Amino acid sequence: MRLNQIAAQLYTLREQCQTSAALADSARKVREIGYRAVQVSAIGPIPDDEVVRIMTGEGLVICATHEPAPQILAEPEAAIERVLRLGCKLTAYPFPRDINLASLESVQKLVARLDEVGALFRNAGLQLGYHNHAVEFIRCGERTVLDYIFEHTRPENLVAELDTYWVQFGGGDVVEWCRKLRGRLPFIHLKDYVFVAETNQPVYGEIGEGNLDFPRIIAAAEASGCEWFIVEQDVCPGNPFDSLRRSFEYLKTLAAPV
Questions:
Q1: CA 50, CA 48: separation in Å to the nearest integer?
Q2: What is the pTM of this model?
């Protein structure tokens, strides 16, 4: 992993990215921390050309996006057009909203549609990824739903945006999942898993401050062809810029020079 492969997921800063002025301020702070790329997600209704102008002005690469899950399935052309306007190659189906993953029939329909839509993205020169949460770790026959998704889609049509926190939360092995997805893992969400004694529950943590073994995770992801290591923290204990800084400072200790 090189420093210029570490990106910040703007979902972490969603409350600070709802207007053009706020997005510009956030982009400046992200670049000052040291990030050189961002994933665009959950920002306000800002024109795409303005988003590109802001990021380009700060020297930030837009490495990926999240597009609305219903739109990806029902209106893939619109999602494709937006990703192309933003000048990146990767996007992800973010969450199986309104999909009953406990039903094999529902899973089969989702998987078939993702494969079809993924072919449209591929034909446009893009890659569609699947972003997992914990729910995909329920059983689907002898395997998990996440296994089923990748076993029943073509690698050229659907890649993975593995989320380290949610794999751990769902009971999976993050390193093993990186290995399973060899050749299908162009981007990964780095998110630590911190267990809190007082509540007996896990919370999202800054990278390096929880119990996930990121040296092994990053090595396994690299071996599987990962290009973008994207820092995301759904909930921060204080200022989210401070959390992004702490994560970046830790990842710097694992990164090779550019």
A1: 5
A2: 0.97
